[in-house]
Amino acid sequence: MALPETVRFPAPLVDPDEPVDSARRYKIIGPGLVVAATGIGAADLVATLVAGSRYGYALLWAVVIGAVMKIVLVEGAGRYTAATGRTIFEGWRSLGRWTTVYFAPYIMIWGFVYGATAMSASAMPLAVLFPVLPLWAWAVIMGLVGFATVWIGRYHLIEKITAVLVGLMFLLIVGLAVYTVPNIPQALGGLVPMIPDGGVTYTLALAGGVGGTITLAAYGYWLREKGWDRPRFMRVMRIDNTMAYVMSGIFVIATLILGVEVLYSAGLAVSAGDKGLLELSAVLDQRYGTVIGHLFLVGFWAASFSSLVGVWSGVSLMFADFWGHVRGLENGHPATVTGGRYFRFYLLWITFPPMLLLLLDRPIFLVLAYGVLGALFMPFLAVTLLWILNTRRIPDRWRNGWFANLCLAVCTVLFGILGIYQAVEAVAKLL
């Protein structure tokens, strides 16, 4: 059967083997850093800290596996865009109408609930460091600063801001982990796969949940903004993605070390919510002094605010592309790129309506829908990438090899199990 015209890939305008000029070849601080930084937020830090405080280094292997799986997933999304010049939503749409039926409500509900969560997480360390304003006021300020940054800026500004924030959070959190003098032999023992009693949920969370959900799929959009959406940038894209998630893995390991050396070694525990990070800061204050505790809060803020800025940019691009195709616009239409009217509509949506949730209790239906739809996204991404990257939707040269297929199959199973856990948990919390 002939492939529908809407999903045929264009012939490359340049030889895919044509080397990238040297000025760009080594300019590898790119979209990978943005997507990795965006994916690590306060919830991921808390999950890692709690896992370290409960199980020591026993789940270190799960962090390593999780980093490898993120490399494979994001590389797949990037490879589709670089090989075809098309966005991931175009790939999803070629699989049938069901993808749009899932994605449309998901991106709207997700943005509404996540907007409040991101603003609150970014505000929490500031409310402790500068208690002149209440938490909700700092949250509104963080939302407005993120909104203004993304509204007036272009992708290159987002990339530079993210690089600064990543450098700050990497320096502080990794530096603090080194400062605690981790037990290296015990840490190496944690590379042996095992699941401690009662640790199934945390194992799944560390392997599958740390490092992003919908933002993983935003990678291809940032490639387009960067100008790397052509086959000649395939090698650069892969280096960019791999380096970014290696750094992400180191950062998560550093957070696990803090959980082990500061909490587990002292028999302490922190809350499972975002306040767990503030509790760790208080423990650091008591154990190492106020300066160390405050440095951790600055790292906490950098991680949270980099996620806010990245989401405001990347998910707005995804919505703009989605709505542009619903309206029949061509790929790359001015309304669907950074600064376009569809992009700005979603930027307004993710910033201002969620501010109401900072003052009110979250509506039960929205929280439930957010939890269930969000839990389904990672298996959705893994399954659709398996489908897209093994068919005529991508040129033969760039289709999956056996290793990519194996990793994506494992991702599908793992994220499917994790999704069921998360969906059941979301329902249970509201019953």
Explain the overall architecture.
Mean pLDDT is 84; it is low at 1-26. With 431 residues, this protein is mainly alpha-helical. The protein has one domain (26-430): Amino acid/polyamine transporter I (Up-down Bundle). Helix content is 72%, strand content 0%.
CATH architecture: Up-down Bundle
Counting DSSP H or I runs of 4 or more residues, the number of helices is 19
Average pLDDT metric:
84
According to CATH, the fold-level topology is Amino acid/polyamine transporter I
General form: globular
Helices and strands: which structural class?
Answer: mainly alpha
Name the CATH superfamily assignment. Amino acid/polyamine transporter I
Largest sheet: none
Proportion of beta-strand residues:
under 5%
Low-confidence stretches: 1-26
Query: Based on DSSP secondary structure assignment, what is the total number of beta strands?
Result: 0
Number of domains: 1
Distance between the termini: 49 Å
Helix content: over 70%
Topology readout:
Blueprint: H1 22-25, H2 31-39, H3 42-55, H4 60-84, H5 88-93, H6 98-129, H7 135-152, H8 155-179, H9 184-189, H10 200-209, H11 214-217, H12 219-226, H13 234-263, H14 275-288, H15 290-326, H16 341-351, H17 355-359, H18 364-388, H19 402-429
Helix pairs in contact: 2-8, 2-12, 2-13, 2-15, 3-10, 3-13, 4-10, 4-12, 4-13, 4-18, 4-19, 6-7, 6-15, 6-16, 6-18, 7-15, 7-16, 8-13, 8-15, 10-19, 14-15, 15-16, 18-19
GO molecular function, one term: cadmium ion transmembrane transporter activity
Protein name: Nramp family divalent metal transporter
Transmembrane segments: 28-49, 55-74, 95-115, 135-154, 161-181, 201-223, 244-271, 291-320, 341-360, 366-389, 401-424
